[in-house]
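Aim 2 progress update. The chain analyzed this quarter is reproduced below.
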Amino acid sequence: MHTAAADVAAARDDLTELDRLIGDGDHGVNLDRGLRAVAERLGDPAIAPRETVGQVLRLAATTLMSTVGGAAGPLYGTALLRASKVTDRAVLDASGVVALLDAALEGIVARGKAASGEKTMVDAWQPAAEAAERVAGTTDDVGDTWRAAADAAEAGARATIPWVATKGRASYLGERSAGTEDPGARSTAIVLAAAVRALQGPGA
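Predicted structure tokens:
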């Protein structure tokens, strides 16, 4: 979560510009604010226990939902809250990563009523979850599982560029939404790539 906060902060202006082109122009600012708050709360031992992955994700979820406006807060918050319910352990194995991603995806779909191909963050989360499941079926390596998910999210986000949005505020633009990457898909790719960087350690 700390790495995700730093990476989203670095990409804040780019995310905001993407959202300005096809949304309401606040995705980068809002997500940056929310993840900064998450990092601050995780640094305060008096706020909540953080002995399991689920506890960390639950704290992140409630913080995002209370500090982030627009669609990002409810969507990311619901994703992490669902994920927290299947990760009540100190360390995740490959199957745990799959469970996390599957639960997060289910939360986003349920909250956003979106499906694959509609030019939303689902188009990064779904391939990420599917890639993680494929890799976890052949190896127990957590790093390989996260890398597969992050690579698939990156490809999924880029794939949204030529699409016409059919969901959310971007859908109001019709054909004019084509040619711009979906900001939620881009931020998803950033957040999942942060998990890989965190596994690699400082300086990665």
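The chain has nine helices and no strands. The mean pLDDT is 92. These observations will guide the mutagenesis experiments scheduled for the next reporting period.
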